[in-house]
Amino acid sequence: MLTNVHQKKRLQMVIGLVAGILFGFLLHKGGVTKYDVIISQLLLEDFTVVKIMLSAVITGMIGVHVLRSLGLAQLHPKPGSLGSTVVGGLIFGAGFGILGYCPGTVAGAVGNGYLDALAGGVTGMLLGAGLFAALYPKLDAAILNKGDFGTVTLPELLKVNPWVVVVPVAAALVGLLAALEAAGM
């Protein structure tokens, strides 16, 4: 079924555009395209961002594994390493802490017409991507490949059926969501 989609690049672009617009709309409706909400999350005063992200992780995790179980999708994990995780986390964290937006929320905020997101966010993403591209050859050899853990997934590492990991992790995340709501966070 989805093989047909893989062969049509324009259709993929249209699906990506529609999914991106829907994603931005949902971020907006959730309130996480607002600077004050994100800063309140960083100050541990408002857990709206965490609740939306946990909901997305649960939905995505279950959805991907249902599609995979039905033979409608395949997983293609990218290789990872401790070095690339640390560098990516530092870059993401610096931008997030300075501007108060992540790449998804900055796009949604630009869609809302927030000039700080347009001027700071888009400019910052372009400068950051350019700087990373310029430094990549030096970072790749020296840092990014340190602590390589390959393409292994948690179920593969544990040598279990993926649902043995998905179900308890989803249940734990739902429990965490319920606890945040019960605590009024």
**What count of helical segments does DSSP give?**
9
Outline the biggest β-sheet: 2 strands, antiparallel
Cα shape: globular
Structural class: mainly alpha
Beta-strand content bin: under 5%
- Runs with pLDDT <50, length 5+? none
The strands making up the biggest β-sheet line up spatially as 1-2
Describe the structure.
By secondary structure, this protein is mostly helical. The chain is 76% helix and 3% strand. The protein has nine helices and two strands; from the N terminus they run H-H-H-H-E-H-H-H-E-H-H. It has helices at 3-6, 9-30, 35-42, 48-69, 82-99, 103-112, 115-144, 154-158, 162-182, and strands at 80-81, 148-150. The longest helix is centred in the C-terminal third of the chain and has 30 residues, at 115-144. It is globular.
In short:
The protein has 185 residues and is mostly helical. The chain has helices spanning 3-6, 9-30, 35-42, 48-69, 82-99, 103-112, 115-144, 154-158, 162-182; strands spanning 80-81, 148-150.
Key traits:
single chain; 185 residues; mainly alpha
Itemize the secondary structure elements and their pairings.
Elements: H1 3-6, H2 9-30, H3 35-42, H4 48-69, E1 80-81, H5 82-99, H6 103-112, H7 115-144, E2 148-150, H8 154-158, H9 162-182
Antiparallel strand pairs: 1-2
Helix pairs in contact: 2-6, 4-9, 5-7, 6-7
